[in-house]
Amino acid sequence: MTAGVPEAARVVFGERVELAERFAELLQEHGIRRGLIGPRELDRLWERHLLNSAVIAELLPPESRVVDVGSGAGLPGIPLAIARPDLTLTLLEPMARRVTWLQEVITELALTVEVVRGRAEEGPVRERLADQDVVTARAVAPMERLAKWSLPLLRQNGLLLAMKGESAAEELERDAAAIAAAGGGRGEVKSCGVGALEVPTTVVVVERVAAARTSSGRRRDARRARKERGR
């Protein structure tokens, strides 16, 4: 292993650690100039970004269909694709310049990953990416909005994995009603990478248990079904 790659990376990425190293190099070379990361992040790319992202793979069932919402620099999507090649992964990103970056990285690393330009709340995106097993998100939005945007992309009992900070439990409690209205279950906070990372990754896990409520309190799916029966 070349100098500068932490030992934890061997554990997390296994035989594909060289791909992770190349991704780190790409971020070092282009990240600041292209507005993907801040200058202070260069010295902590592995711990704070690559490993921090990749360890949430322990929450993903084998061969899951995954959408990374607001993928940005490719976090957590690219590290997940490296660590777990069994996943069917889509990176969802609204900004054209970041979409270009993601496509360049995928080509450079020869990853089997799809990039879609758009936002999770857009109708065509929801139709195209419906019935996912897992949605991931890192530093995208508070749980209230994230649940409303992301839960409709999931199949019944699919999982929203939102990477959060120390206030994760407080945010989950604060936004519990909004999460339920969006079709989410109670939610829980989990730690990933315990034993591998000095600071484990905090993830809010929310299961999609129902369709979202409309403003009148009805469930959207039920109302659609009644409408279709009346045709």
UniProtKB/TrEMBL annotation:
Protein name, entry field: Ribosomal RNA small subunit methyltransferase G
InterPro entries, per the entry: rRNA_ssu_MeTfrase_G, SAM-dependent_MTases_sf
Biased composition regions of type Basic residues, renumbered to the chain: 216-231
HAMAP family: 16SrRNA_methyltr_G
Biological function: Specifically methylates the N7 position of a guanine in 16S rRNA.
Organism: Saccharopolyspora ipomoeae
GO molecular function: methyltransferase activity
One GO BP: methylation
Binding site for S-adenosyl-L-methionine: G70, L75, A120, E121, R138
Enzyme Commission number(s): 2.1.1.-
Protein family (similarity comment): Belongs to the methyltransferase superfamily. RNA methyltransferase RsmG family.
Assigned keywords, A-Z: Cytoplasm, Methyltransferase, rRNA processing, S-adenosyl-L-methionine, Transferase
NCBIfam families associated with the record: rsmG_gidB
Subcellular location as annotated: Cytoplasm
Gene3D superfamilies: Vaccinia Virus protein VP39
Chain's gene name: rsmG
Disordered: annotated segments: 212-231
